[in-house]
Amino acid sequence: MLKLIESLQAAFRAHVKSQYDVKLDPIVAEYPPRLEFGELAFPLAFELAKKLKRKPRQIAQEIAERIPPIEGLVRLEPAGAGYLNVFLDRWWFLHREVKAQPISPETGKVIVEHTNINPNKAAHIGHLRNAVIGDSFVRQLRFLGYPVEVQNYIDNTGVQVADVVTGFIYLRKLALRNIEQISEKFDYYCWDLYAEVSQWYQSDTSRLEFRQRVLHEIENGHEPTASIAEYVSTKIVKAHLLTMNRIGVQYDLLPRESEILHLKFWEQAFNLLKERQAIQLEVQGPNRGCWVMKFGSLETALPESKIIVRSNGTVTYVGKDIAYQMWKFGLLAKDFGYQPFYTYANGHQVWMTTIKPTPQSPRFGSGSRVYNVIDARQSYLQKIVVEGLRALGFNQQAENSVHFSYEMVALSPRCCAELGIELTAEDAAKPYVEVSGRKGLGVKADDLLDRLLAKSREEVDRRGNFGDPAEASRNASQIAVGALRYFLARFSRNSVIAFDFQEALNFEGETGPYVQYSAVRANNIFRKLEEQDPNWERDVEELLGLRRAEDLSGPAQALLQDDTLWELILLAARVSLMVRQAVETLEISTLAKHAFTTAQKFNVFYHKHHILSEQDRRAKCLLLCVARKTRDSLVQMLDLLGIEVPEKM
RNA sequence: GCGCCCGUAGCUCAGUUGGAUAGAGCGUUGGUCUACGAAACCAAAGGCCGGGUGUUCGAAUCACCCCGGGCGCACCA
User: Fold this and answer.
1) H helices of A545-574, where?
2) Which residues is A292 bridged to in the sheet?
3) What is the C-alpha to C-alpha distance for residues A279 and A502, in angstroms, rounded to an integer?
């Protein structure tokens, strides 16, 4: 499809240049709203009309009449106020498109950072959105041929971990060996403890001193605090990996803040920042004694400034983030040590940073493009990180630092009621409530998954497709994951999701299971066919060997004119263009939508044409050809969304 | 106060870097099961695209101004 569009654009560009001496760029191609307007439409006559001061319709007419014939077109038609509508030779197009088109590999490593959950409590629904967006994006980049490295940053020395550690030591008064014996789900236990500690501070703010002490002890490796912090954060990171693995999300590397500190990444970045005068020491004013970064254009009133190093000499989060971002681009001349952390059931290994390197570790970092999947609330800080790179003179790296921003997941009022959450009057008045770990307010990822699983298992059992409970369970899990991942992918990234169980637990209509079901139906056709006629592929190949549409049988020729089939071919042909668009605009939902539309059209096709009972051999092969192409593109799109196709549904 | 984002059918959302008659799903009403399984399909009802002004051959889309809502703007992360 892309090739066809490019050749049409070239033909139009050349024609317009020679006939009107006008250079048009770009030449926009559109998909007409209805098939009666053709397969592609070019509004270029509108552009020309402006330059030539003539009526667009007249120009469109003229071009349609005078342009030399183009391969693959049946006709070119002026329409509406001045469109040029393209009508394709269906057999010619189907012929080319049915063959899978290889994608050439790209060079330059892409680093995608996502998930980044504080290792102090269970993952919640907001983290799931991050991971689903990040992982789908990674899959799409890989589809386009990019080498991708997935990083999940672990802030194991921050306030949030310190809070839970404070809770263990000062509130629960537990030693490490007691903590190790906690039998309940550890991330859930910490979820409650974290909320409890926050309350505990609130009722007596002098208790915040405990937090300060703990924070300090973690940074300096003071025992037993440091070991407790290490135990807690590592155990929770493991829990997060398992939760995310349930929905098919895996990582390559877990870079930890502790190594950024201990390997003195910051020191080196700090020296460079000073050397290149990207930051200045404030000698007066409220920020006296701090190193600050100033940015913003000088023409506008006040330049903004951000504290990078506090007056007590410690570095802020943004400072550490600048150092980390520099490392990602290979600008730091330092590197982490790496150790294997966990091996997934599929054999893939996640590595974690350490101080001492493991001899044969893979190479990480040194990307040429970096995407940080972080929610929109951190836009300001992400902007500062990029400004930091710019201030250091790394303009190219600044250009290649992309904040993949998306909106948060909030809780709908109904959802809060269902969870038994009592809201303050202020919160109750809002259209939705922000998730808050500190308040213990939110839907835990594993809970949601369990509920989805229970519901899909019920559906699976009702249908009685499986004798083996293990198979039924696997099937139910694939469907539950499909529902969840599709639900989180279908919203455009700038819209806040007001989470609602009823919607998330739905398996009908615009949902993951709907798309999965279409793919399963398509597979069923081929499974049955395999029993009836194991040599069917030979017949289909023979059909595709026919050069001219006239060689098809009468019924097959008639089918070629059926828009139901034709639409499916067109949708399938657009898949790689959709992926490209999704990646360029950072909009995963584009692909989710396309998958749904394809599934919808397939279901129409499925109802209209009963393939296996088709008597005409050529017609049957044509139907099979369309069904196979559609199935392949559905499977492909689902895979790019991280959704598996169940065996039965 | 400043900055970013959102406002489209009863509800939840799409709307292809300005294009043809604004589309889905849920919900509602009424139809379709002889199994390539109905987790599906068909049909109906439902819209001053928050309001206004402008730019344009053309605006849900762009600009400006309002109105309503969300989120940021720490020597927290």
Assistant:
1) 554-560, 563-573
2) A280, A307
3) 51
Q: The whole model's pTM is what?
A: 0.96
Report CA-CA distances (Å) from A35 to A5, A93, A363, A555, A626: 17, 15, 51, 21, 17
H or E, element range at A409: strand A409-411
| CB-based contact A535:A505 (threshold 8 Å) | no
**Alpha-carbon span A399 to A371, nearest angstrom:** 11
The answer to whether some atom of strand B lies closer than 7 Å to the beta carbon of A76 is no
**Pairwise CA distance, residues A634 & A391, whole Å:** 46
Q: pLDDT-based confidence at A296, cuts 50/70/90?
A: low
* Positions 374-403 in A, CB within 7 angstroms of strand B: 376-381
In angstroms, rounded to a whole number, what is the distance separating the alpha carbons of residues A452 and A458? 10
Proximity of residue A610 CB to strand B below 7 A: yes
Q: Which of A344-348, A551-555, A572-576 has the lowest mean pLDDT?
A: A551-555
Domains for chain A: give ranges and CATH numbers.
2-88 (3.30.1360.70), 512-640 (1.10.730.10)
A549 is near strand B: CB distance < 7 Å: no
Q: Is-contact A333 A267, C-beta < 8 A? A: no
| Cα separation, A549 vs A635, whole angstroms | 29
Q: Is any atom of nucleic acid chain B found less than 7 Å from the CB of residue A496?
A: yes
Is the per-residue pLDDT at A300 higher than 80? Answer: no
Between the two ends of chain A, the Cα-to-Cα distance in Å is 32
What tokens were used for A356?
Answer: 């001492």
**d(C-alpha A4, C-alpha A55), whole Å:** 28
A310 touches strand B (CB under 7 A): yes
Q: What is the pLDDT of residue A360?
A: 87
pLDDT greater than 80 at residue A595: yes
Q: Would you give the DSSP letter of residue A23?
A: -
- β-pairing, A369-375 with A110-113? parallel
- The pair of structure tokens assigned to A349 is 């290994």
Q: According to DSSP H, which parts of A378-468 are helical?
A: 379-391, 395-399, 413-419, 425-428, 445-463
pLDDT by residue (tens digit) across A116-143? 999 999 999 999 999 999 999 999 999 9
Concatenated DSSP letters for A304-372?
EEEEEE-TTSPBPHHHHHHHHHHHHTT-SS---EEEEEEE-TTS-EEEEEESSPPTTPPP----SEEEE
CB atoms within 10 A of CB A41: 20
Can you tell me which residue has the tokens 């369970």? A473
Q: What is the ipTM of this complex?
A: 0.96
